[in-house]
Amino acid sequence: MSGGYGCRLFCWNGVYDALAPESEPYSLPAPLPQWPKGKGFATGIISLGEIEVVKINDFESVWSCRLLSKKAKGAAFYKPVRIPDGFFCLGHYGQTNHQPLHGFVLAARELRAQKAKGDNSSSTKSQSSALAEPVDYTLVWCTDEWGGERHHGCGYFWLPIPPEGYRAVGYIVSEKPDKPSLKEVRCVRADLTETCEKHGTILDLESRSVESPFQVSKMRPCDRGMLGKGVSVGTFFCTSYLNSTKEVDIACLKNLDSTLHAMPTLEQGMPIDSEGSVLPGGGSNDGEYWINLPSDDSRDTVICGNLESAELYVHVKPALGGTFTDIVMWVFCPFNGPATIKLGMVNISLNRIGQHVGDWEHFTLRVSNFTGELWSIYFSQHSGGEWVDVNDLEFIEGNKAVVYSSKSGHASFPHPGCYLQGMLGIGVRNDAARSKFFVDSSVNYKIIAAEYLADENFTEPPWLQFMREWGPTIKYDSRSEIEKIVSHLPFFIRFSVETIFEKLPNELYGEEGPTGPKEKNNWIGDERS
């Protein structure tokens, strides 16, 4: 993992445009490294049990549009091409066209010669083929229903109708009204699939703009996280109904190969030394123990920390059914500084509010197990966060992405700027900018956990088993301090204390000491987004 990635962490009104431009394919700033030989990581093909899948990111444009409204985004839809012999298309790809072309769809082939290793399900004994042609297609929507508008080419969106006992896992887009060939796509046996859900909009044609409304969404497995078996196919969901609760009629894939052979091996990572042996391990956060700052002369030194010796702690885990690797980079900050409140155009630095001992933050690199390519980064931001595609990241020194850590609060962001935690111009500032203070996480890191490597005698450090709080509980007299601040403001910009309190985050009223990485929901589950 040290070979290529890491981050530098800094402290239509309805009108259709006939000339929708083609998005240029995206590539990382530098070539991928030559990964050390392992089992199945970065080999291009992943076994899911009875089928093998390959990632296809070579596309041929089928149909695209651009919406002239400043707030609306157009979309482009593509057919996968250069599919390897023996593999079959599972569906087409779509994305917004205001960004570089960056996506994939999976193609699949059936494993007939051998049964899947580690698959104890009865499905391997079934005589039914894992893949099957659809029996027909249903037309979901077409540009003929885009009445009164100018058209540059035609688009027809088809849902494959699977045979009994099978599920469609993607849609087909064509330029002609004739139904696509049944050989165009394959459906997957139902026991080899998982349920999926909509996640983010690709295209939204409202009813006031077209004779028939049309919505297209990205898809992700419902079953995610470290133990999840759901595998994203990379296809989209589309509907001509505006009801957002409409049942999703396609599925994603399921990884039934429990060996997770496509995950990186220890030879592709790095062992670490043990630390924290004096901390009580195991159990739960029972309030019996917590960590505090020292009471002697070393207190100020601990509060400031030491960037020269700082390391990030790495949790490596499978994602999306073992087709991706999540490299979770944990950062421990010994002290959280005071907050700065923004009241409209006025910024006020607080004295103590927001301060607390200990602060565990993280960001997550999601790497494709097909190619070893960085795909996206999750930026943790207080009680939430966001996934950012690789094409919207900043890079330095080849493929090292930049992660900005906000002043005092340590939330992470993909770009510099002021991010307001609040609403309507009132809240806590999160300021992020480049500076001389940084940590190169591609070098300064330690792998602390990789549960899928249990058979390789990987040992977690003792401090990771400390399930109590890494700091004492803090309560702030926020109302008193804010009342004093408001009383000194000019009358014409004065806000009521109640108005301010309604818009500030809960952390400013008091905060319990933070718990360690293993107590966080994303240790096993997926990131919050």
UniProtKB/TrEMBL annotation:
Source species, domain of life? Eukaryota
Task: Please list the residue ranges that the record marks as compositionally biased, kind Basic and acidic residues.
Answer: 517-529
One Pfam entry for this protein is Vps62
The UniProt annotation puts the region (Disordered) at 508-529
Return the protein name. Vacuolar protein sorting-associated protein 62
Q: Which organism was this protein described from? A: Stephania yunnanensis
